[in-house]
Amino acid sequence: MALQLSLSSCSYLDIVPDGIPDIEQHAFAMRTQAEKFLFTCYSYIPVAGSISANPAFLAGHEIVITPQSRSYSGTAAYYLQQGQQRSDSPYICYWTGGNGGKNLWRGISDCNIFLEHIHDVPDMEEWEKLQWAAEVEFLKVYYHYYLVKMYGPVPIADKNISVAASEEEVKVYRNTLDECFDYMLSKLTEIIAGEDGLGLMEDYGGQENRVAGRVNKGIAMMLKAQVAVTAASPLFNGNSMYRGVTDSRGVEIFCPSKPAEARLQRWTYAAQACGEAYEFLTAKGHRLYAYSGSLTEAGLSQRTKDKLTIRMALTDPFNAEVVWGNSNNWVGVSGFGYGDLQNQSHPRDFNVDRKTSNSNHRGNFAVPLKVARQFFTKNGLPIAFDKDWANVNPLEVFDVRTDDSAFLYAGYQTIRFNKDRELRYYASLGFDGGTWYGQGDETDRGQYIQARQGGAAANTVDNSWNLTGIFPKKLLHYRTSFATGSAAAPTTTATAERYAWPLMKMNDLILLYAEALNEAGNMSKAKEMLNEVRTRAKLPDIDMAYSAYSNDTRRAGSKDGLREIIREERLCELALEGYRYWDLLRWQEAENDFSQPVTGWTLSGSAPAAYYIEAPVFPAAITFSKPRDYFAPIPTQEILRNRNIMQNPGW
After folding, report:
1. Three-class SS of residue 596?
2. CA–CA separation, 628 and 636 (whole Å)
3. What is d(CA 425, CA 410) in angstroms, rounded to the nearest whole number?
4. C-alpha–C-alpha distance, residues 423 and 378, integer Å
5. CA distance linking residue 574 with residue 195, whole number of Å
6. What percent of the chain clears pLDDT 70, i.e. is strictly above it?
7. Three-class SS of residue 638?
8. Least-confidence region, from 96-100, 168-172, 356-360, 558-562
9. Does an H or E element contain 398, and which?
10. Alpha-carbon gap, residue 501 to 131, rounded angstroms
11. Which candidate, 137, 138, 172, places its Cα nearest to that of 155?
12. How far from chain centre, in Å, is Cα 645?
């Protein structure tokens, strides 16, 4: 889906741009031109599969990079990771655009223009006008939602302000949080129900090649579920941290004083919205992905296929688990640019003879140890709650035996931290001694990471420097590869297998449903949803795991305990997909995580004992300031232009 005809608004927020008569005359004169405007409305979708445009990868500490890598790729989110956001020209700004962000207010304005004029197009049938209008109504909500996640309460821009409006009308106030969420949920309800003649596609109907990436009914239902859960989450649902924060009218726009019953109603509504989306999408054939084996060579072990299930759920384009894939955000694009997720996730090499001459796979994206640590044991429990790990020294070096070779390379030395972990650990991460299928190697267990000093994946040059020794394998399509070459004639030829970045997936919906059910008081159904994800990950159901293997057998039996368990499950299941940042914010747990040291292996030794020493990867501590850093700053120039727009606390 090509996106064209970019229009610009030179006025504040949602004012109708100059030149609207020309837009009316040309953009809606016929269907082909109106379609270009439709694609313009889509073009504002934030590029989530990009470390430069999505703040979540770096700000959520899922990936860390060096200053040299930042300078090569121009990644502004690096400064968010360092706790160096600013209100003057903010990094990754989605309010006015810039530093990696897009101007979402301009996107909303273009959506409003489209909706005002789509019915004037002469050579379109009414049903198609209504379908396109519904898609753009959705996009308008989606852009409001992204702004609310980043900035908290925002002005609702359901209609553009006329250029003839008075100064008082132009200088709008921020709506309250509850007004924002009620607007979005009400609008989505209308879109889904087809009120006012709106009519989204039920699904793609086998026309994925033509319309994949366009909004359909299932996507709208899942957005409603996401918005509803966000509205119910601690950061947004009667948060007393913002008590006394008022705008110039004296209005507490963060709605900090909310009784327990009202907070519970948000969760009840969220559970219902998640349930409706789940039932609709499963009826349409959406389900958790399972690797069939039809995409690769025969002879793979079941364990390798299981790992590919986890990897390919993300990288197999528009598979059954993907509810909404962004057809304008392909990872592994032509040219395999420096900032591409696949380029930077690939280790320097697997063959020590080629590492000095291979210049395509940089390996700059490093996964912090705290992310590696959050994955479960093979018993389906966090390390701290698994009684089998009570007397385990995670740094103990051992020789890998054949019975561990599905995950670790037989005959190699690694540490106990890497042994007896869950399937998702091995599928998502590359680490010293870990087996790695694909990337040009078709043997089942023949390829592995050598990250210690002198190894094929070890750091070699400053623009190819992995800070922790852990690689985000999950982001790489297994068919992305480079030519093998030889020691005498090394090669730098690379071929990337592209995939469209998924904006919505079933595993996210299932775990949102579990979270909402638990908060609404239905623990039994919550566990049923939780276990659906755990079964795919080859883990025991939650009650069995805690009764048989845990040092706290009662944890899964309480609402508070199950809340923590569901959150831990999300951190494992959705790791490296950009959810961690938003989840820790909405749970109001960011202050406990983002100020912790970011660490990795010391990387300086060739022997295990010298290499496996945990050390900070940044020279200075990172500070997360509460409440300031829970919401991004509104650009200072916007506050100066409209004093009714209150700046977020702390900025």
Report:
1. coil
2. 15
3. 18
4. 7
5. 34
6. 92
7. helix
8. 356-360
9. strand 397-399
10. 24
11. 172
12. 29
